[in-house]
């Protein structure tokens, strides 16, 4: 299912990250302009199929290089340009900050031996 990420208004709300992957996405704040999620992914865990319809800033305080994006069809995808830009600028010591475009349907797999954890600030509108 291809999406025009410039218009996310028709993205199925049943696949919103909070609705489709509630064990991995916890709302810690929401109003009409922002939604703040705590995102956690245990070792060897894969999120259910979901999307993120809004652009966001993702601050990862626990991350490693064994995180993989998986397509709806189950194929491992290369890292997104948003993530690659953030990693290039990262000092490897502090939290990793990623400015993210809306993300169409997909899953994330933690192939590592430690948790992935972060706060995702979604900008509505």
Description:
The structure is a single chain. With 125 residues, the chain is mainly beta. It has one domain: Jelly Rolls (Sandwich). It is built from two helices and nine strands. The strands form two sheets. It has a five-stranded antiparallel beta sheet. A hairpin with a 5-residue loop joins strand 5 and strand 6. The chain is globular, with a radius of gyration of 14 Å.
Q: Would you spell out the secondary-structure blueprint of this structure?
A:
Elements: H1 17-20, E1 25-30, E2 34-41, E3 50-52, E4 56-62, E5 67-70, E6 76-77, H2 81-89, E7 96-100, E8 103-110, E9 116-123
Antiparallel strand pairs: 1-2, 2-9, 3-8, 4-7, 4-9, 5-6, 5-8
Total strands: 9
Category from helices, strands and their pairing? mainly beta
Instruction: Work out the strand percent.
Output: 35-45%
In the CATH hierarchy, what is the class?
Mainly Beta
Model regions low in confidence, pLDDT < 50 over at least 5 residues: none
Mean pLDDT level: 92
For the record, the count of structural domains works out to 1
The third-level CATH topology is: Jelly Rolls
Q: Quick one: biggest sheet?
A: 5 strands, antiparallel
Shape: globular
Spatial order of strands in the largest sheet: 1-2-9-4-7
The assigned CATH architecture is Sandwich
What's the quaternary structure here? Answer: single chain
Percent helix range: 10-25%
How many whole angstroms does the radius of gyration measure?
14 Å
Say which CATH homologous superfamily is assigned: Jelly Rolls
Order of helices and strands: HEEEEEEHEEE
Q: Number of helix segments?
A: 2
The rounded distance between the terminal residues' Cα atoms is 23 Å
């Amino acid at each position: 299912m291809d999406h025009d990420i410039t218009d996310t208004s028709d993205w199925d709300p049943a696949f919103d990250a909070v609705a489709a992957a509630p064990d991995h996405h916890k709302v810690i704040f929401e109003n009409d302009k922002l939604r703040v999620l705590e995102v956690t992914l245990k070792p060897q865990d894969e999120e259910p199929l979901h999307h993120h319809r809004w652009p966001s800033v993702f601050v990862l305080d626990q991350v490693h290089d064994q995180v993989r994006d998986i397509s709806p069809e189950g194929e491992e995808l290369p890292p997104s340009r948003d993530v690659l830009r953030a990693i290039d600028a990262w000092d490897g010591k502090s939290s990793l900050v990623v400015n993210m475009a809306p993300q169409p349907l997909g899953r994330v797999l933690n192939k590592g031996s430690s948790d992935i954890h972060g706060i995702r600030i979604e900008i509505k509108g």
